[in-house]
């Protein structure tokens, strides 16, 4: 899918992909692959308006990535998605290397890391 940003979930320490993150074949994907916290995240529950619960999944990681794009758009009105992505990849993220099953092997991924503006 062109013009998309792939989001994976990482464990709390941010240095390993979770078992439920589906990276597929990174070489066949042209967009960025970003990762964000997605394992045991405390979030709003469904019992009532003050309920919280702990969830895991890429559905927990994706709002983190959307949030960093929104923060950039607020800080730099008019910034393009391409420029935002370039900034996140070079400044707003930390690289870590992870070994995928054969034949893919070792790949480097970017975990978002929101610096202070």
Q: Helices and strands in order, then pairings?
A:
Elements: E1 6-10, E2 33-37, E3 41-44, E4 52-55, H1 58-75, H2 81-90, E5 93-100, E6 105-112
Parallel strand pairs: 1-2, 2-6
Antiparallel strand pairs: 3-4, 5-6
Helix pairs in contact: 1-2
Largest sheet: 4 strands, mixed
Please give the order of strands in the largest beta sheet: 1-2-6-5
Helix proportion = 10-25%
Q: Tally the helices: what do you get? A: 2
The tally of beta strands, per DSSP, is: 6
- Alpha-beta content class: alpha/beta
Average pLDDT figure: 80
β content, as a range?
25-35%
Ends distance? 32 Å
- The backbone outline, from C-alpha atoms, is globular
Q: What gyration radius follows from the Cα positions, in whole Å? A: 15 Å
> Poorly predicted ranges (pLDDT <50, ≥5 residues)?
none
Order of helices and strands: EEEEHHEE
Short description:
The chain is built from two helices and six strands, in the order ββββααββ.
